Amino acid sequence: MPRAPVGAGRRSGRRRAAAGRAGAGTRATAGSTRAIAAELGVAQATVHYTFGTKEDLYREVMEHLTAELIAQVERAAPKDAGFEETIAALAGALWRAVREPASGRQLLIELTMLALRTPSLEAARQGHYRGVIEVTARLVTEAAERTGYRLVQPAETVARFFVASFDGLMLQVLCVPDEAAERVGLNALVSATVALAGGRLELMDVRLD
């Protein structure tokens, strides 16, 4: 008997589930579709059927990991804390995730670097960063409105600074870990973010010519 075609919704659900399983692995960016299939525990033909190409798989994994990261940031935002405490809570939650081997953060970095060299992944790369910046800016705005904290800098500027600085600290953890220095850096990041948001951080004019 001929097999009934798989509906778009069902196939989309399979793609999301498979992307999550691939994201839990560590070899996806380095392997062929054969290696990816082995990581997922499925036949190679299943990978081609579900995703089409490796780039399609990478795109799905990036979107899956980005959605997980955004949800994690949103869950970490306290509902009744001060502005400073809210920024500290966000940083702390993200930092704990970085320290978890199965968090997928290292894979997300690897995929982002790969996306810089892969034109077909440009939209996924931009979507990842836009999503993280947008949700961070929204949480900054909500915290400021809830607590009466006056934002001197635009929320998006504050969010971009926070995300860029956090990414730098995260790379150091992966490349040259130093727990004591990392703790100082994380505390400094929170303090600088709060000061920037409130207009208390003196900004030096850096010459670029």
Instruction: Briefly note the structural class of the backbone.
Output: mainly alpha
- Average predicted confidence as pLDDT: 81
Q: How large is the share of residues in beta strands?
A: under 5%
Most strands sheet: none
Helical content, roughly?
over 70%
Unreliable residue runs:
1-12, 26-31
CATH homologous superfamily annotation of the domain at 58-198: Tetracycline Repressor, domain 2
Radius of gyration: 20 Å
Secondary-structure element order, as H and E?
HHHHHHHHH
CATH architecture of the domain at 58-198: Orthogonal Bundle
Named CATH topology of the domain at 58-198: Tetracycline Repressor, domain 2
Domain Tetracyclin repressor-like C-terminal group: 84-194
Biased composition (Low complexity): 19-28
Region (Disordered): 1-28
GO molecular function: DNA-binding transcription factor activity; transcription cis-regulatory region binding
